Fold:
Amino acid sequence: MDEKPEVQEEKQENGQMMPADVLVACEKKRDEYLAGWQRAKADFLNYKKEELQRLQEFAKYGHEELMQGLIGVLDSFDLAISYSEKQGSAPTPTGGRSPDQSVGMEKGIYMIRAQTEDVMKRHGLLRIRVKLGDAFDPAFMESLGEIASESPPGTVAEEIERGYRLHEKVVRPVRVKITKQ
Amino acid sequence: MAKILGIDLGTTNSAVAVTDAGEPRILENAEGNRTTPSIVAMSKANERLVGLLAKRQAITNPKNTIFSVKRLIGRKFSDPDVQRDKAWLPYDIQASSSGGVEIKMGDRWYTSEEISAMVLQKIKADAEAKLGEKVEEAVITVPAYFDDSERQATKNAGEIAGLKVRRIINEPTAAALAYGFNKQKNEKIVVYDFGGGTFDISVLEVAEDTVEVKATGGDTHLGGDDFDKRINEYLVVEYKKQEGIDISKDPLALQRLKEAAERAKHELSTAVETEINLPYVSSDASGPKHFLMKLTRSKLEEIVRDMIERSIALTKETVTAAPPKGAGFSLSDINEVILVGGQTRMPAIQEAVKQLFGKEPHKGINPDEVVALGAAVQAGIFQGDVKDILLLDVTPLTLAIETLGGVATPMIQKNTTVPTEKVQVFSTAADSQTTVEVHILQGERPMAQDNKTLARFMLEGLPPAPRGVPQVEVKFDIDANGILNVTAKDKASGKSQTVRIEASTALSKEEIEKLKQEAAAHATEDQKKRDLAEARNQAETLVYTSEKALKDAGDKVSAEIKTAVTEKIEALKKVKDGDDVETLKNATSALSTEIQKIGQAMYNQKQGGESATQEQSS
Structure:
């Protein structure tokens, strides 16, 4: 009779088919799987948010390469205008035009440039403006040379090439020459 | 768990990646770029600059702009390589009290570790901003030839930057990790790394859980920058020949030329010819001068050929020379070749490497990012992201069902991550069809007969209805173990039938490869077959709708129209089972035009009737 309760207890355990250690192992696995599942779900939700952000970024900066190419076109316009301005309205040796014709041509080129830049502006391009004497700031400037000057050293002495931002991103720094003592 | 960074600390540029949900990805820096120049400077305003900002003032502040510090890190000042580099580096270096290298920046001397730490600090800060969380650990890569002292110094740089360096791994090993080659036992891998400033060649052998570096070689002073320099020099000389003007002294002209040359180099990786067009590049007494020159891929290759040949000779030597100079392998022993570094985008380099090894090199992952991505894979293992339990498989081949005309209609495309489920609704092909057969296929070929049959079953007891009316919903469901359950259910009667296929993904690598190759080899004839099947399906549908329209129209259309339509129907029926797509399409189009007359006649009749009614009422 004394042995009976022991046997009964064993049977109970066998009947349940779940010794304590198996249960612990199962619970551990369950927790691990649940954590993995929650992590995967969280990763997916985060991924969706990031993907949306990436899409917004893409919409903003997806045309950066095209803008870079068009900035090159603006540069060429700038050089043409600057050359023309240096020459004055007088007919060039090669041009052989009347002063009026030259002025008209110059104005036309200036207008095409403005028109091109206007289209680019509408797509987020902004010119970075610097003034002579501004302190050199590599956040949006690049120095290509130095000029001896009386002005404080390390300030903008000459703007060699215009710089542009596409929304917040500097797609081309303003290229400058800076002063040196 | 906090993220661990994978950092490729390069000689010219660095990159950083993290692993999310088992996949590595590059993190952009604060300037929005995927790589950061490995440059540090003390500006004239006594401000410390790192990366792109330091680069932007390098020309006017060469003494205090520190680049290529990787060439000095962990080395003795007396090292012959350091002495050689000292001759051309624009900044000052000296021996430290321990015999190492110290670098002057601003009014202070820094150790090379401190300089590298500044680059790592920026990378860490930018990554934290991007991730929106603190990062404290990293895996950093170094060249395979780095000795203990150089590795320790790199580790120290990480620690100075506030990063616990979990491991320093070899750059070629990281590249192999990014391609997943670490699990392929007994493979011999060559990593051909043509970076901006250095050319490294490494021979690896993958054994049980280890990647052993068998040999390293290369040239620490040969890189993509030399290619750019060579192209620039060529263009300057050519321009001088054309216009008699030397633009090498004009900083703006040179800058424009440099950018245009770089763009041209990139373009020539995909095009065979490009034009460099720079209006108003200079001027003289006769007026403005423009730069307009065509550059062909073959000319570009000619300009840099000696450098490519040199890299190939070095590669051959590193693989075949007897140890310790080389790995002592024959070229045919090499199982995989990986291309790293932006310069390897050049087709001539890819071709030269392919010729040397007689096999296609791996170039699928961006060569500028592959090392950082591999470092992030290693970081992911530390993070615990890459646990077996979370590794998800993909379906190696497309799973499809057969539809009208023997066409294999894809349900789950190849490379879809499992578990997944796709549902599509199909209909019947004949009137009063009470049974549909679901034929489950696996493979990439467009026609059912060319693919492997996984199972077939019948769904019976559909209520009789005209063709196209019943809606049979077919569901493909693959669980994480690759077990495919296909269920077909008639939406009207609710009757359904399911089949379970255990081995939908259990194909050997060879079998999958074979099936994919077959699909590629038969692509053209398969497309023809599919076009024919589709044309035939269209013809059958049109015959069916035309016959129905004739019946529905009854006496409302003239006998003349009816005869014409019937003739065209018969004509189409005759050619319907032939193999000529054009004849079939012509007959279909002829019937399609004719059948419109029925509709037109019926509308005319109706309008006639309506106007008669209107007249009566007015």
Observations:
- Confidence is low (pLDDT under 50) at residues 1-13, 90-95 of chain A.
